[in-house]
Amino acid sequence: MCTPGLMAPRGAILFPFSGSGGLQMLLRVLWVSLLLGFGLATSIARADSFEQGLEQLKSKDFSHIEQGIAAIASSGNANTELVLNLLLNGELYRLKKTDELVVVQGKQDKKLIIVNLFDDSGASAQTVSKRKIKKVRINNNIRASLKAALASLKLSAAEPEQRRQAVNQLIGKLTPELYQTLSQRLDVESDSSVQELIAVALAVTDLNSADSDSAVQQTAVATLSDSLQPAARNALAQFVETTDNAILKSQASKGLRSIDEKRKWAGHAETLFFGLSLGSVLVLAAIGLAITFGVMGVINMAHGELIMLGAYTTYVVQLLMPDNIALSILVSIPAAFLVSAFVGILIERGVIRFLYGRPLETLLATFGISLILQQAVRSIFSPLNRSVATPEFMSGVIEINPVLSLTLNRLYIIAFCLIVFALLFMLLRYTRLGIEVRAVAQNRAMARAMGVRSEWVDAMTFGLGSGIAGVAGVALSQLTNVGPNLGQAYIIDSFMVVVFGGVGNLWGTLVAGLSLGVANKIMEPWAGAVLAKILVLVFIILFIQKRPRGLFPQKGRSAEG
Amino acid sequence: MTTHPQMYEGIFNKSTIRFLTVLIVVALAVPLLNALDSSNPLHVSTYTMTLMGKYLCYALLAVAVDLVWGYLGILSLGHAAFFALGGYAMGMYLMRQIGDRGVYGDPLLPDFMVFLNWQELPWFWYGFDQFWFAALMIVLVPGLLAFVFGWLAFRSRVTGVYLSIITQALTYALLLAFFRNEMGFGGNNGLTDFKDILGFDLQSDATRMALYVASAIALGLGYIACRMIVTSRLGRVAVAIRDAEARTRFIGYKVENVKLFIFVVSAVLAGVAGALYVPQVGIINPSEFSPLNSIELVVWVALGGRATLYGAVVGAVAVNYAKTYLTAAMPEIWLFSLGAMFVLVTLFLPKGVMGILQRERPDNDDSDGNNLDNGNDLDNCGVKA
Amino acid sequence: MRLIEEFQHRDKVFDFMMPNTSPALDVGQGYLLYLEDISVSFDGFKAINKLNLYINEGELRCIIGPNGAGKTTMMDIITGKTRPDEGSAWFGQKINLLEMSEPEIAQAGIGRKFQKPTVFEQQTVFANLELAMTGPKGVFTTLMAKLSSSQLDHIDHVLGQIGLKQQRNLLAGALSHGQKQWLEIGMLLMQNPKLLLVDEPVAGMTHQEMDRTGELLTSLAGEHTVILVEHDMDFVRSLANQVTVLHQGSVLAEGTMDQVQSDDKVVQVYLGE
């Protein structure tokens, strides 16, 4: 699917004067009348070919039927598409008694209700037994020509996507007439990707037709070499295999190589994109931890469960407003933040504050909390996974070129991650809370002496970290199913990201998360998802041994201690 | 002061003798009671005996964790990995023992390999048809993993929570790896359907009894080995490392080596525990690697009381008894109570149940000796027992 | 091939064959410790800046200086805790301190007492001394170690020296602050190092305790070389003849206490402009 956002620049290329509304209007009118004129002329000339074609369909001979289809397809009649579709789907019948074409409308007892073709009113409805009618038979040949005929009809469809599909079906199957139609179509086509596809379709035909001279073939090879359409590559590859012309062969294989090169880069770009989106998820999951662990030095093993709570909040909000999915996601973000932050503050006030300075005990206690939260969710929502709907605006893809398309939800996750990161960064850097948080992290006693309410700061910091975990849960709910084990899957990864990036360093977390995501996706094709994950884990284990303070260690005397 | 008073506790102090006595009684009594006629009210069913054998394996595992956590201060969240590796080594031997009695009747390949259409035995399965080889691997594989991991980690001075987390990552990585069919360890089904061990039928009461007694012996020997370590000067160095690592370096001890030695010993004990566990439960699968298992066994030790060894045993048996009971009676409650246990023990019982019991006996109170004058009449307050 | 030839030199002593513990110190030049051109910076802050320090064998040298002068960092460098960015540090003529780890340096004969008393609080006074005792400290020797009666006597002797005979079986954590300081000095005595680094030993002590500590330290000098970092001027005056003043990571002045105290630069640093 193509988004309006990307359509605009394409339109601008085709209509260079799109800035002035009047001129654009004029061009549009010209274009439409051209189309109409073309259609009108043919339909008058072949007014009766439609009727003739229908007659021929009643024959038992496949060759007659084929002629009939050709006649109908070229008739320009408004009902052409209907008839061809009925044929293709095997829904067109012949009533044996009257030799009329009929369609089945429904069933009554063991008999069928049929109506005459083109009878919308249903006046001709009658009930007959199955044996009284006969399906108009088609074979594979006919099916192919039906598809081609339908495709050429769709060429003038309003939606560019439909036109694209139509051309795609025609590639390699062009009859001389269709070739004609397509090359005329090329001149008036407004959508550049459809244009490219038509050019490819024509070039494929040029390349393979016996009566093309080598100059035409050369142009065709050049056209195909520039295209990233899979069909273009296939045609070139086939041509290289079969041709005897040495010059053309070397040209074609050169083109093939350049296509492969481009496809390779597109593949790299796609891997990078997937990696960044996975990395964004990791960053989102880890960044809350970077605060509680990095800034406060608290190991919160229940962090994963705070993410899970965020995801469940999304689920609940969606249950409450089932009619407006898009809005529910937007509502979920603050809701999840509040729910997780609230639970986080409860954990901090209830347990963690008694354990400051005893990191290993904190680890154990928060692990216990994570078990309780998991079981609580299991008891309330059942152990089964719940799925959260994705809003309209997040589904779909952006097609950069035929071999590279980016899914919108991943794009949103990346953007969301960066926004959350930026907000958090600014919060810690420029607000009173941020300054106090950093003060307490660096020297608790001193901060207290300066009048910072360190207890309050602890609770707020922990709430902030937990709240962000909840927000990460909203994002995760858009990617996976929501279940009680959701958090567990992310806790180790999150810790790895924080430790890899360097504790107490938000930038480190960002870089570490993104690079681990990309590394994971790069390794996946040749190692498989599980092995890639293992390799990343092993890599981090080795890395921490080499640089215990992570990618971006905090320097200074305090760090030496 | 002409004669030197006894400076340190020996290996067989009061608590050790008490523990070993109880262990011997239990090790002998249960098989005897099992041999009674089933109509006798004192009869212990084979099921119960096997269950207790399982607890003994857990207890040995807990002792291994206490050795590194209690005395050395390393909170390993990956000890289940060593346990499972020992278990897999035993499982591989038991798989090879099945021979052609498997479902597919292949004389060489275990069923799951036939199922995966493998043509030949992977190289790492060679030798496991011999018990001595398997026994060697039970010790060697966990020991070697602990050695390599510890060598890397301790040398680069990864300590505290960092170490805990990477041990957890280690067992997580192994969990993922063992889930893969390609690894050749039966994928997520693991190894099961064992038939016999050393030629004895695994289902027979006599074999079960022998396994139970073997577990008790292993626990006893493992316990004594740990006591030997913690009562030696090395044990005091370990406690010194636990309490002030940098200081220990400055008086000339290579902290890395001490840690490595004790970590490897602990891993081997865990491996042995796993190896005895597998024939009794009849299956080993990757879920044994799950980080939850590792962290759960830490709470056994925490509940019983750290740096006591017998506290670890008490904790392991108590928690597992509760688990067996609760997961059968009220499965919903189990995770709640386990979670609550984590929280409550860390908040209110930093020394564990044994710590409380100890505090109630004044003659053993060495924890808060801020009375400067009674230095002379304390004779057994060396390494904290 | 070269490798094999190298191995054929009978007289060659390979590094790995060299004993790791207490090598014979070569103090031929009279200096026990050389620090030359040592610099180290944390995050752009130069904690130590081109520091040169030479310590004679048997000397008791006091290092004084305002806060942040780099005294503790200097000790960290000598004991291997911090690696300098540049410069060289030699113990005697043969031992390059910059290539050794903390335990290796300790085994080579440098002992350290920290600013904050760090003893093993969960162990008895006796065990603290036993752990510090000089001798092989490998894993297996430690595992199998038995106290000989001469070692026992040595520990008891040191217990007498530091006045903690009564507390020998008490947990070190139960000692008073001053007693902990003495215990730490006692641990240094057990270690029997060539060079002793003592960081503010009398901080937080009563006058009587201070006197006792002074006696202990003086009795150490001669047999051991001592570097003392201290703030208390009276205490320093009562002990040392040679004083080094550190300021902003390098040596500001050196000499007797009187010389140093009359030095204009020193007065400026301590009293301000």
UniProtKB/TrEMBL annotation, chain C:
Annotated GO MF terms: ATP binding; ATP hydrolysis activity
GO cellular component, as recorded: plasma membrane
Matching SUPFAM superfamilies: P-loop containing nucleoside triphosphate hydrolases
UniProt cross-references to InterPro entries, sorted A to Z: AAA+_ATPase, ABC_AA/LPS_Transport, ABC_transporter-like_ATP-bd, ABC_transptr_urea_ATP-bd_UrtD, BCA_ABC_TP_C, P-loop_NTPase
Domain called ABC transporter: residue spans: 33-273
Matching CDD domains: ABC_Mj1267_LivG_branched
Record keywords: ATP-binding, Nucleotide-binding, Transport
Designated name of the protein: Urea ABC transporter ATP-binding protein UrtD
Source species of the chain: Neiella litorisoli
